[in-house]
């Protein structure tokens, strides 16, 4: 069964204190792995797509990496405005049913709080 | 990326009633989806909204409970029928990006059923 597990559930950092969020996944065939940011009361905001092991993507203070079993979202010198829930999702290879090739399976997220 | 809006943004409904949620996109998109985010849980795909044909539902979701319409390439509706308190969730529509496989999400509709 396709599954995504994110850790930790919650993370509290001081401003400037770098850390990493983990996304472990089990999927029969990976079409893509996605990172989103979700602020309270809003829909998820797309951050990155990773397609193959060894791939890395960067955006401002965020860098996402991918291995065959997990992905990391590294946050360098975070600021209070980086506080949000970060969601990881995988897109498995599938046939025409079950959303075809477009279904996203989400983890429960990591709630990040960055304090000044 | 496309700009996605949803109506209503939130609602409080009585048990046994139905609510229709609208999703409007500012450009034509090939694929639209409906997700549910229950309190403290991850997003779960309800169905793919197909333009001109019946929606494709995920396991555990049925058309009688969650009828979906998609009359054109910019608009879709999700109805939550015969609601119970267990239907209290955030309902989100998403669209597939034009370049890669990413999906972009609307702001969500927060539904509370009393």
Describe the 3D structure:
The complex is a heterodimer of chains A (116) and B (114). Helix content of chain A is 0%, strand content 56%. Chain A is an all-beta fold and 116 residues long. With 114 residues, chain B is an all-beta fold. In chain B, a hairpin with a 6-residue loop joins strand 5 and strand 6. Chain B starts with a strand and ends with a strand.
Task: For the structure shown, list the relevant keywords.
heterodimer, A: 116 residues, mainly beta, six-stranded mixed beta sheet, five-stranded antiparallel beta sheet, globular, B: 114 residues, seven-stranded mixed beta sheet, 11 strands, 50% strand
Which chains make the largest contact?
A-B, 28 and 28 residues
The end-to-end span of chain B amounts to 36 Å
| Envelope shape of chain A | globular
**Runs of chain A with pLDDT <50, length 5+?**
none
Radius of gyration of chain A: 14 Å
Major sheet summary line of chain B: 7 strands, mixed
Tell me, briefly, the overall form of chain B: globular
Total of DSSP H or I helical runs spanning 4+ residues of chain B: 0
The percentage helix of chain A is: under 10%
Helix/strand layout:
The complex is a heterodimer of chains A (116) and B (114).
Chain A: E1 3-7, E2 10-14, E3 19-26, E4 30-38, E5 45-50, E6 56-59, E7 62-66, E8 70-75, E9 84-92, E10 105-106, E11 110-115
Parallel strand pairs in A: 2-11
Antiparallel strand pairs in A: 1-3, 3-8, 4-5, 4-9, 6-7, 7-8, 9-10, 9-11
Chain B: E1 4-7, E2 10-13, E3 19-25, E4 32-37, E5 43-49, E6 56-57, E7 68-72, E8 75-80, E9 89-96, E10 103-105, E11 109-113
Parallel strand pairs in B: 2-11
Antiparallel strand pairs in B: 1-3, 3-8, 4-5, 4-9, 5-6, 7-8, 9-10, 9-11
Quick overview:
Chain A has 116 residues and is mainly β. Chain A has strands at residues 3-7, 10-14, 19-26, 30-38, 45-50, 56-59, 62-66, 70-75, 84-92, 105-106, 110-115.
């Amino acid at each position: 069964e396709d599954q995504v597990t994110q850790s930790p559930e919650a993370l509290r950092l001081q401003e400037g204190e770098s850390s990493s969020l983990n996304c472990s996944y089990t999927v029969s065939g990976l079409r893509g792995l996605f990172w989103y940011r979700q602020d309270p009361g809003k829909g998820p905001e797309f951050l990155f797509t990773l397609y193959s092991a060894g791939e890395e993507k960067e955006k401002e203070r965020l860098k996402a990496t991918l291995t065959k079993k997990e992905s990391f979202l590294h946050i360098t010198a975070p600021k209070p405005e980086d506080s949000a829930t970060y969601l990881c999702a995988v897109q498995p290879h599938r046939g025409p049913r079950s959303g075809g090739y477009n279904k996203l399976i989400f983890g429960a997220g990591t709630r990040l709080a960055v304090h000044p | 990326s496309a700009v996605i809006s949803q109506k209503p943004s939130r609602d409080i409904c009585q048990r046994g009633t139905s609510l229709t949620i609208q999703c409007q996109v500012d450009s034509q998109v090939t694929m639209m989806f409906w997700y549910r985010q229950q309190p403290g849980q991850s997003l779960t795909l309800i169905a793919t909204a197909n333009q001109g044909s019946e929606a494709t539902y995920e396991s555990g979701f049925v058309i009688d409970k969650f009828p979906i319409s998609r009359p054109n390439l910019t608009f879709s509706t999700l109805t939550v029928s015969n609601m119970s308190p267990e239907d209290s969730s955030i309902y989100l529509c998403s669209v597939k990006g034009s370049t890669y496989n990413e999906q972009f999400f609307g702001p969500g509709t927060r539904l509370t059923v009393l």
